[in-house]
Design goal:
The complex is a heterodimer of chains A (327) and B (364). With 327 residues, chain A is an all-alpha fold. Chain A has two domains: 99 residues; 220 residues, MetI-like fold, CATH 1.10.3720.10. Helix content of chain A is 75%, strand content 2%. Chain A is built from 13 helices and two strands, in the order ααααββααααααααα. Chain A starts with a helix and ends in a 7-residue tail after the last helix. The model of chain A has no long low-confidence stretch (mean pLDDT 87). Chain B has 364 residues and is α/β, with parallel strands linked by helices. Chain B has two domains: 242 residues, P-loop containing nucleotide triphosphate hydrolases (Rossmann fold), CATH 3.40.50; 93 residues, no CATH class. Chain B contains 14 helices and eleven strands. In chain B, strands 6-7-8-3-9-10-11 form a seven-stranded mixed beta sheet, with helices on both faces. The chains are: A mainly alpha (327), B alpha/beta (364). Chains A and B meet through helix 9 and helix 10 of A and helix 3 and helix 5 of B.
């Protein structure tokens, strides 16, 4: 067990190194530095001024030296110009000159809240409908539920989002525009402020959960052991929920892991649709501005979260199915 | 075993139910003209076609036949486990005064696992991989006996000990994949016997096991039967197992009973060409290794379109001995005298003669 976590942690560091190197390299390959210099320097810029900017940003040093400075900064902190940047130092934004760590810390709660709410709704409603469909398989209820899930899944955020805003905010004025409030300040406001984007994400992701839960449960119900359970005289509820649903959990955990990664790493379109300031927005702006430290920061955080989500899924497999062991 | 209260309760309820009061003449389990038909895309499969038998408390009926002869299908019909949408069940199944084919799903569910239990062939597939063996025993006990978690767990430990699993207190929390094949089958038996059922249906419980373990399991079933007076239906294709366990034998072919009698009668004085084929296909381990095996030639008939007349006639060596091509046109009926009989057009004398001259010499 301990070996498993040590191994996975080492693997995570390795993956992060590779990802950071690739991101760093792509920035230079796409001649990002020239864009940055051009932008900072303005339209009528002399070569000397450009060189000055280049030097200020540290872009005049060799590639690997820059990479080394950046990576050691994450572990040990570093000084940038006259400012010091403490331990997990992701550098200063080229465009806003603010510490990247701080900006990510500011955006992260929004993204986290968006993801948590959406995931809870996805599990409750998506999986719940799947269980009901499996229990009523072959009936009209089953067909209606599966159809609803598929139709809902065919929506896109940029269609459903504005539609919900139009209906609930602009036409009926039942709600205010979505806004992030800290959960710790006011849980009620936190929930109502984000309910529209949550519903949006839930509706779009629901289909996968409903269909997967249904089919995995129907598969489990065809397993030999279910015949034993019936021969034991167990109640329908025990057979479906205690046993067949348990058998369906592993595949659900698989896609849940993928979705956690996607949602936590920033839901770009959702954040733009509902004007929320999360990681996704930071990522897009960083690319637009050729803001290397910002890009690196967002990519590394997103990658780390995705890797952790995968790790959680692997642990979940072992918890769900006693035959699975963690190596 | 006298440790906990629910246990005593289980034992006493089983004992109270013993005399079937109002219907003294009828058997404990009586199956009459059972038909099981499946609707498939290709047509209607007559999996069981007019099966009748009786079984008394404490005795064992062996059902023998090839795959697809309707052995398992009939036993699943007794438990009412067929999908009602795809299956038509006809005939009557009387269990201790209850007509099972007419019983509601709710009534059946109270019998299943409580008074009628079943052991399946492949214990690894038949046990849930997600729950410990102990939990799978305990959940049945909780369900039927209203026992608490603690009582049920104790019952699980007791049952594991009783079926011969060493260290039951420790093994109770193990999962089926931690068990060996023989231990898994023992665990299946522990589950089936958790509520002291009156009828146990064992569907090829030893087929997946090696002979040593097989013999241990059979001994165990025998011990438990004499301890609790459980009636057992033993389904198998292994005549050795039948010889070791059964009181009466029923030979099935193409969904019908072709021969019935006591184990001695059927194994030592068989009256049906199919039974002869089964008997002579058992290899003689003491004999010359160069003697080829003698399988029953041909393949089992399609139950979608069974052959006309006697369903066994395409594989039978004695069709020519019966006049008027009767085997190909008319289906022989099973006539029983004193629970003994066979469904074959040969006359009694012919059967006795053929068995004596052609079959007996091949037997050990």
């Amino acid at each position: 067990m301990l070996r498993f976590f040590v191994r996975r942690f080492a693997g995570m560091i390795g993956i992060l190194l590779v990802i950071s190197l690739i991101t760093f390299y792509l920035f230079f390959a796409a001649s990002g530095p020239d864009d940055v210099v051009q932008m900072s320097c303005g339209r009528f810029c002399t070569e000397e001024a450009k060189a000055g900017v280049r030097h200020d940003l540290g872009l005049d040093k060799p590639f690997f030296e820059q990479y080394w400075v950046y990576m050691t900064g994450i572990v040990m902190g570093r000084d940038i110009g006259d400012r010091s940047c403490s331990a997990p130092c992701l550098g200063y934004s080229f465009s806003s000159r603010e510490p990247v760590t701080e900006r990510i810390q500011n955006g992260f709660p929004t993204t986290l809240s968006l993801a948590i709410g959406a995931i809870v709704l996805m599990i409750l409603i998506g999986v719940g409908l799947g269980v009901i469909a499996a229990m009523k398989r072959g009936t009209r209820t089953d067909k209606v539920l599966t159809t609803v899930a598929v139709v809902a899944g065919a929506f896109q955020i940029f269609i459903l989002g504005p539609l919900l805003l139009l209906i609930f905010v602009y036409e009926t004025e039942l709600m205010d525009l979505p806004k992030y409030y800290a959960f710790t300040d006011n849980p009620g406001k936190w929930a109502t402020g984000l309910i529209l984007p949550w519903i949006c994400l839930m509706v779009i992701h629901m289909a996968m959960y409903t269909r997967l839960t249904r089919s995995a449960m129907v598969d489990a119900l065809n397993d030999d052991y279910v015949r034993t359970l019936r021969a034991k005289g167990l109640s329908k509820r025990d057979i479906y929920i205690k046993h067949a649903f348990r058998g369906a959990l592993s595949p659900v955990a698989t896609i849940l892991g993928i979705d956690i990664g996607i949602l936590m790493a920033g839901t770009v379109i959702t954040e733009f649709t509902f004007s929320l300031n999360g990681i996704g927005r930071l990522a897009v702006l960083a690319v637009e501005d050729s803001d290397l430290p910002m890009m690196m920061g967002v990519v590394l955080v997103a990658a780390a979260i995705t890797i952790i989500a995968n790790l959680l899924v692997d642990v979940a497999y072992a918890v769900i199915d006693p035959r699975v062991r963690l190596y | 075993m006298k440790s906990s209260d629910p246990l005593a309760k289980a034992d006493s309820t089983a004992a109270d139910a013993a005399p079937a009061g109002d219907k003294p003449r009828s058997s404990f389990l009586s199956v009459r003209d059972l038909h099981v038909r499946f609707t498939t895309l290709d047509g209607i499969v007559k999996a069981v076609d007019g099966l009748s038998f009786d079984l008394e408390r404490g005795s064992t009926l062996g059902i023998v036949g090839e795959s697809g002869s309707g052995k398992s299908v009939s036993s699943l019909a007794i438990l009412g486990l067929h999908n009602p949408k795809k299956t038509v069940i006809g005939g009557e199944i009387h269990f201790d005064g209850v007509e099972l084919t007419k019983a509601s799903e709710n009534e059946m569910n109270k019998l299943r696992g409580r008074r009628i239990a079943m052991i399946f062939q492949d214990a690894l597939a038949a046990l849930s991989p997600f729950y410990s063996v102990g939990e799978q025993i305990a959940e049945t006990y909780r369900r039927h006996m209203g026992a608490s978690r603690k009582e049920a767990r104790q019952r699980a430990i007791d049952m594991l000990g009783r079926v011969g699993i060493p260290n039951p207190e420790r093994r109770v929390d193990d999962y089926p994949h931690h068990f060996s094949g023989g231990m898994r089958q023992r665990a299946m038996i522990a589950i089936a016997l958790a509520c002291n059922p009156d009828l146990l249906i064992a569907d090829e419980p030893t087929t997946a096991l090696d002979v040593t373990v097989q013999s241990q399991i059979l001994d165990l079933l025998g011990d438990l039967q004499s301890e609790f007076g459980t009636a057992i239906i033993f389904i198998t294709h292994d005549l050795g197992v039948i010889a070791q366990t059964a009181d009466d034998v029923l030979v099935m072919y193409a969904g019908r009973c072709v021969e019935k009698g006591t184990v001695r009668e059927v194994l030592r004085d068989a009256r049906h060409p199919y039974s002869w084929g089964l008997l002579s296909s058992v290899p003689d381990l003491g004999g010359d290794v160069d003697i080829p095996l003698r399988p029953v030639r041909g393949t089992p008939p399609s139950l979608l379109s069974p052959p006309p007349g006697c369903p066994f006639h395409p594989r039978c060596d004695y069709v020519a001995r019966v006049g008027d091509d009767a085997c190909k046109t008319s289906r022989p009926t099973l006539t029983l005298a004193d629970g003994r009989g066979s469904a074959c057009h040969l006359t009694a004398d012919e059967k006795a003669e053929i068995f004596a001259t052609e079959v007996r010499p091949l037997l050990r």
